[in-house]
Amino acid sequence: MISSNVIGELREILGRDGVLDSPEDLAVYAYDGTFAEHRPDVVVLPTTTEQVARVLEIASRERIPVVPRGMATGLAAASVPFDGGIALTLTRMNRVLEIDEENRTAWVEAGVVTAHLQAEVEKRGLFYPPDPSSNRQSTIGGNIACNAGGPRCLKYGVTGDYVLGLTVVLADGRVLKTGGKAIKNVVGYDLTSLFIGSEGTLGVITEALLKLVAKPQFVRTARAEFPSLDDASRTVNAILSAGIVPATLELMDETAIACIEDAMGLGLPLDVEAILIIETDGSDEDAVVREIESVARICRENGARAVEVARSEEERAELWRARRSVSPSLARKAPNKLGEDITVPLSAIPEAVRRIKAISAQYGLPIVVFGHAGDGNLHPNILFDRRDPDQWSKVESMVGEIFDVALELGGTLSGEHGVGTLKRPYMEKALGSLSLEVQRRIKQALDPLNIMNPGKVLP
Ligand SMILES: Cc1cc2nc3c(=O)[nH]c(=O)nc-3n(C[C@H](O)[C@H](O)[C@H](O)COP(=O)(O)OP(=O)(O)OC[C@H]3O[C@@H](n4cnc5c(N)ncnc54)[C@H](O)[C@@H]3O)c2cc1C
């Protein structure tokens, strides 16, 4: 519990509407994108870095846990405040502070919604590529804290590849600035990278300097239908081995397709085992067209029964609407889903998919497989009813087996969603004890009182 004196102090800093502590408000801040739930003791909504710093000074003095929070779309229970304390929500720090066209950078507050930034820079012919499917609901701060990926990361890289500098409020309230507009910078340890993917455990990111690129002028998008999931998985590597780097290469299996159809009725085929969505882009229209034609040929050679290239922006948008709807559509099939985020080497995708389907058959619970197949990042989602204790105990075993598949095939536990609390028990298996010891020392150095998002990431 936080004393009324401390709540009063927070109100002095943030104003009455910047501090929420009614039971209704606390309930709203008890969730993220998983089924985990725990209420904070208080919610704060700062509007400046200085306010964040003053909140952390108090938290440090009083040893109160602080859980940074963007839009809470995270899929690892990393922004759920299991120890109560302060839910520090960045959504009011949502300004794009500067777009520097000459240096192709954007300086933003951490609470900017990703799609909003993308729209702003695209008005000027620039492009911010990282595109988590949640880009209309998640924040740049959350994307950096999870090192979010997305379909386009195959060609363009993940969020971390676009972060040039950060403003971070440390656990004791001091404000650290890292990086800058200079593209090359090897002075000292790379502190910017240290905070990328740190899931709120090392400090609060309040501002970010992001790299932009020129907006690709031409895009072509194809949908390939595969009667065999195995053929679709093999095709992924066949395309990349041919020297083509599509902007995106996404896989949806038959259960995903059925759920989307049930929810949206988009006219997807229900008699295939998989669909690949492939996009090529660039500034040379002929090259982009040639690449999509080669992709279509390789798909047919590897077992696709039909390949359609979108003829208009509307058709392209419709294809992406299907892909972006996978996750929300799964609710039609079962009340709960547990979405994993494993990565495997490209050559291992067919074997990974086969083994995941075998786990599903063994336990008798559906596992939907979709994801960013082009970079080996698969999202096996187990569908179940959490009210049924038998199903829940199966899910726990299935998750362990899915992680074993990833590790045995030379991959890892998470490509983009992060560890949070859900993957924490498997960290030692994935990283080994020395890596964990080094990570614990970093945490100890930056947050000696363990107030920053305690209990997350490190077992
Ligand atoms: C439908 C759906 C689709 C998704 N698709 C993708 C996808 O394609 N790719 C992908 O990578 N993810 C995806 N996600 C997961 C999620 O959207 C991302 O992890 C996103 O980056 C989280 O951003 P957020 O603002 O919601 O952060 P939150 O969920 O609020 O927080 C996530 C983590 O970041 C920390 N954090 C948040 N803001 C800050 C800050 N300013 N400073 C320090 N720490 C902070 C939190 O403490 C927590 O540990 C999806 C989620 C959903 C629900």
Describe this structure in words.
- The chain has helices at residues 4-14, 23-28, 49-62, 114-122, 140-146, 153-156, 191-195, 229-241, 254-264, 285-301, 313-324, 326-329, 349-363, 389-408, 427-431, 433-446, and strands spanning 19-20, 42-44, 66-69, 86-89, 96-100, 105-109, 126-127, 163-169, 175-179, 204-211, 213-214, 218-226, 248-253, 274-282, 306-309, 336-339, 367-372, 377-384.
- The model has no long low-confidence stretch (mean pLDDT 95).
- The protein contains 16 helices and 18 strands.
- The strands form 4 sheets. It has a 7-stranded antiparallel sheet, sandwiched between helices.
- The chain has 4 domains: 4-89, Uridine Diphospho-n-acetylenolpyruvylglucosamine Reductase, domain 2 (2-Layer Sandwich), CATH 3.30.43.10; 96-214, Uridine Diphospho-n-acetylenolpyruvylglucosamine Reductase, domain 3, CATH 3.30.465; 218-328, Alpha-Beta Plaits, CATH 3.30.70; 334-451, Alpha-Beta Plaits (2-Layer Sandwich).
- The chain is α+β, with helices and mostly antiparallel strands and 459 residues long.
- A hairpin with a 5-residue loop joins strand 8 (163-169) and strand 9 (175-179).
- Helix 8 (229-241) packs across helix 10 (285-301).
- Residues 32-33, 67-75, 78-79, 90, 110, 132-134, 138-139, 141-143, 145-146, 148-150, 199-200, 204-205, 327-328, 416-417, 453 line the site of flavin-adenine dinucleotide.
- Flavin-adenine dinucleotide binds at residues 32-33, 67-75, 78-79, 90, 110, 132-134, 138-139, 141-143, 145-146, 148-150, 199-200, 204-205, 327-328, 416-417, 453.
